[in-house]
Design brief:
single chain, 233 residues, mainly alpha, two-stranded antiparallel ribbon, 2% strand
């Protein structure tokens, strides 16, 4: 097998990793676009919207979750190509990959809340008068203003910190085009800082900035996937 810049031609993992980045980015984009739109700062309005579109929210959460799992498969290829070759920057890639594993676990937990939240709303609406108070307490815990308020900023911090470390590894290793590493490094730093600010302000006021960051990150994953595919296939 021929080898070019550390990505092995014909290697199965390299092929799967390239597909993981591309498929993952597409799934996350589709799932995000399909999410019901509502004002998260208006709790009653959000509850009404999510209750009326429960299946849509749950399906979107599943699609996004599958997308993050696919991206993790892509990150395995980046991690392996840098670490197993002992290239410069392999320590940064090692740390970044394990941060990414933690980040994907956190995103999976977050998406499971999006699956559970509309179900809890429907249970609350269908509950008898004597059980409504208990049912609504579950809705409150699962709402974006409840447990999700602290989980979302943590998701952003951990995941984008992983991209920061992986970006450094890519820049130092020279296995991938350095400009791709610099993009990952820059996005990672921006996401980490945004997550810190969100911890104190909540995600609602800064969600438009997160949306921009997410779109740029999706484009970065697509470029990584295409770059790997051109060398592996």
């Amino acid at each position: 097998m021929a080898q070019e810049q550390g990505v092995v031609k014909g290697d199965t993992l390299s092929k799967l990793s390239s597909a993981g980045f591309i498929v993952g980015a597409i799934l996350i984009a589709l799932g995000s676009l399909w999410l019901p739109t509502t004002d998260l700062s208006n709790i009653l309005e959000a509850q009404r919207t999510f209750g009326e579109q429960a299946v849509r929210l749950q399906a979107s959460a599943l699609i996004i979750t599958f997308g993050y799992w696919a991206v993790m498969m892509g990150m395995v290829g980046v991690y392996r190509s840098i670490v197993e070759r002992g290239a410069s920057g392999h320590a940064w890639a090692y740390v970044g990959f394990y941060f990414h594993i933690v980040g994907v676990v956190l995103w999976t937990v977050g998406m499971s809340l999006d699956v559970s939240y509309p179900a809890a709303i429907l249970n609350w609406l269908a509950a008898s008068d004597t059980d409504k108070a208990v049912a609504y307490s579950v809705v409150t815990v699962l709402s974006p203003a409840g447990f999700g308020r602290g989980l979302f900023p943590m998701n952003v911090m951990v995941n984008w910190l992983a991209f920061f470390f992986l970006g450094i590894g890519m820049v130092l290793s020279a296995i991938y085009p350095r400009w791709l590493g610099w993009i990952g490094l820059s996005l990672g730093m921006a996401g980490w800082l945004l997550g810190i600010v969100m911890t104190f302000t909540g995600r609602e006021s800064l969600f438009s900035l997160f949306a921009i960051l997410a779109v740029l990150t999706l484009l970065w994953w697509l470029m990584l996937g295409i770059c790997m595919a051109r060398k592996a296939w």
